[in-house]
Design a protein that fits this description.
Length: 541
């Protein structure tokens, strides 16, 4: 493993002379110690971590301190002096290595704007050149806004084809000292802009009180705010997702299984990949604790990764504040709400009440990876048997969510799960899920939903075979009546399917007392009717 100093030389292009000048050294773990020096006295140490999620460890009590401030003393000796304000310490070192004087804030680009601007009083030219990324641009624009009225010796720039000064240096280490200085000079000369010019070019929203303007190219080029999946091909991170269905269809079980698989980091429905395990917060007023206990004892899950939250009030600003604290304290990633109407303060049919509810949810989403809300569809009318996709309550419910999934019951333990709204324009095909109940409860992805006609043919075939398997032999009318009662096709289609079965030697046709009868061909076992359901105990009610 490389030491911190080896890392600086081999990967960041710093020379031993530069390392010695800034008094850099490594700690016992190989991390880099960056001394903060004022008047040649070390007043603190900032650490550059070479492993783990955290890149820097800032010294306490030095939040307003600038790095490399002593360089101002050398600037005063030059006739025409330029001071560059960079974003990070290694950028400062890279510039100083090639003869350019530079400073930065010890606590990052977002702080000490006023202290940095005051440096213009001590030099002939002050150049702000933060990183070429979203944060660097945003903070450059904030500083430029403050400098609009004092433009004489302050300039701003964004490196066009490099993220930062160190990246420019590393990419051109083959250049001699003078050629590198020339390259840096050309960048400064061609890219530097006065504050107002910089604001106009990059579209600073702070020019306007009621407008937030961001250049589209900046948004497209940014590494942040990229869409990421929580559940691959199904649900994105930073989204509010609505799962609705008729009463008793299995919405609660589905979300309980969803919570279980997320807590384990397992594929959802044994099909959709999850990148890691997630901590789930469960808000449930739809099921009693005894039901939840029984369900989660039979659902595969990491119980340490699921927090049951017993909320004492409906959603309001006070409740949301407490929930935010709980989410942070318990490190919750995903919040499940069962059901919307149980936690919403107000009337689900009132547009104003619904918008207030989802406004509070958006606040919570800032602390979470994802929110899943359970809701009901409108009740079916007497003439309807299925296919009602209208959610109960105000239309603003659907308008407020990012995705809307509907769960429908088909045959005993078969469910259809379909996506009827997706703000992210991602195609999620309707799918068939099979509820499996034994000692454990699970939902398995069976496949994409077949067209109704194909499904009904399969069902009709199974009804015919099942009936003849029990009755041994039967006339056509009895078979047709059984199929009709079981939800299969009518007589004409049954007749056609029987002919197909006879042609395939699955069924034999014979005559008894001038009456045609049908029976299964006992000599042919080559045909198996595709199973469309496995009779099991129904726990959806």
């Amino acid at each position: 493993m490389k030491t911190g100093l080896e890392y600086l030389i081999e990967e960041r292009g710093l020379t031993e002379e530069t390392i010695n000048h800034f008094r850099l050294n490594s700690d016992e773990k190989g991390n880099i110690n960056i001394p903060i020096i004022i008047n040649d006295i070390e007043i603190g140490i900032k650490k550059r971590m070479l492993s783990g999620d955290r890149k820097y460890l800032n010294p306490k009590g030095l939040e307003s301190q600038l790095f490399n401030l002593d360089t101002l003393e050398t600037l005063s000796k030059d006739k025409k002096n330029l001071l560059i304000v960079a974003e990070g310490e290694i950028d400062v070192m890279s510039l100083e290595q090639y003869g350019y004087k530079a400073v930065c804030s010890t606590t990052g680009v977002a702080t000490n704007h006023d202290s940095l601007i005051e440096l213009a009083e001590h030099v002939d030219a002050l150049l702000f050149a933060f990183d070429n990324d979203k944060a660097g641009l945003a903070n450059s624009l904030k500083v430029a806004q403050k400098c609009k009225g004092t433009e004489n010796n302050i300039r701003f720039m964004m490196l066009d084809d490099f993220k930062d000064w160190n990246e420019l240096v590393v990419a051109n280490t083959h250049l001699e000292f003078d050629d590198m200085r020339k390259l840096i000079h050309e960048k400064i000369k061609s890219l530097s802009l006065k504050p107002l010019e910089f604001i106009r070019k990059y579209g600073d929203s702070s020019l306007y009180k009621l407008l937030d303007i961001n250049n589209l190219q900046t948004i497209v080029d940014s590494d942040s705010n990229n869409l990421e999946y929580l559940i691959e091909g199904l649900i994105h991170k930073k989204t509010i997702n609505l799962i609705s269905g008729q009463s008793g269809v299995g919405k609660s079980i589905l979300t309980q299984i969803l919570a279980g698989t997320l807590s384990e980091g397992l594929p959802v429905f044994d099909e959709f990949y999850v990148d890691r395990s997630y901590k789930v917060g469960f808000l449930d007023r739809e099921n009693g604790l005894s039901i939840l206990k029984d369900r989660f004892l039979r659902i595969e899950c990491n119980k340490e990764n699921i927090e049951y939250i017993d909320l004492k009030a409906s959603f309001n600003s006070t409740v949301i504040s407490e929930l935010k604290e709980a989410i942070r304290d318990f490190e919750i990633d995903v919040l499940v709400i069962d059901t919307l109407v149980r936690f919403q303060e107000g009337n689900e049919n009132d547009s104003k009440d619904i918008n207030e509810f989802f406004k509070l949810l958006r606040e919570l989403l800032n602390e979470l990876e994802c929110i899943v809300v359970i809701h009901h569809l409108k009740k079916l009318s007497k003439d309807q048997k299925s296919n009602n996709d209208s959610a109960r309550g105000s239309s603003d419910i659907i308008a407020s969510v990012d995705t809307h999934f509907i769960l429908e019951k088909r045959d005993d333990n078969l469910l259809t799960f379909k996506n009827v709204k997706n703000r992210l324009a991602e195609e999620v095909k309707p799918m068939t899920l099979e509820l499996q109940i034994d000692e454990l409860i699970s939902l398995k992805f069976i496949g994409d939903v077949l067209p109704e006609s194909i499904h009904k043919v399969s069902k009709t075939k199974k009804l015919i075979v099942d009936y003849l398997d029990v009755q041994k032999e039967s006339d056509f009318n009895s078979i047709a009546q059984y199929v009709k009662d079981g939800g299969g096709y009518s007589q004409n289609k049954v007749r056609d399917l029987l002919k197909d079965f006879i042609d395939q030697n699955v069924i034999d046709l014979f005559k008894v007392s001038n009456k045609y009868m049908y029976k299964l061909n006992e000599d042919d076992n080559s045909y198996e009717v595709e199973s469309i359901f496995t009779p099991q105990q129904n726990v959806l009610q």
